[in-house]
Write a structure and sequence with these properties.
Layout (H helix, E strand, L loop, with lengths): L3 E2 L2 H10 L2 E7 L4 H15 L5 E6 L4 H6 L7 E6 L2 E7 L4 H13 L2 H16 L1
């Protein structure tokens, strides 16, 4: 599956309507972003069950700001509308493949229970 470009208008629907969404926050002037782009694109072709999206932080400054993107490229991963991962820096294809497998293997009921427990502790 090819990557899709996200905008302020399409972001919520993309995250809400898909089980797993990987998002690459990037900019045209960013050298590491340009190096990571072909790796990201190649890996996206191997995983039809995942949406691989891109956010151009120059064109979508509000999105970048809302997720406090301070360094690019930044990879963010949503699964079932929950942010599981947000990390700046590029990675090699095998690292990205390994991360994908970890995301797929997560027990999301356990993740939701941990989030609920954290929320409960914050309120106490």
């Amino acid at each position: 599956m090819a990557t899709v470009n996200l905008t302020q208008e399409t972001f919520s629907d993309t995250v809400n309507d898909n089980d797993i969404v990987f998002i690459d926050f990037w900019a045209e002037w960013c050298g590491p972003c340009k190096n990571f782009a072909p790796i990201y694109d190649e890996v996206s072709e191997k995983h039809e069950d995942i949406v691989f999206a891109k956010v151009n932080t120059e064109e979508e400054q509000e999105l970048g700001a809302s997720f406090q993107i301070r360094s690019i490229p930044t990879l963010m991963i949503f699964r079932e509308k929950i942010i599981l991962y947000s990390q700046p820096g590029m990675m090699a294809g095998p690292q990205l493949d390994e991360l994908i497998e970890k995301v797929k293997q997560l027990d999301m009921d356990k993740v939701r229970a941990e989030i609920a427990e954290q929320e409960k502790q914050k309120q106490a």
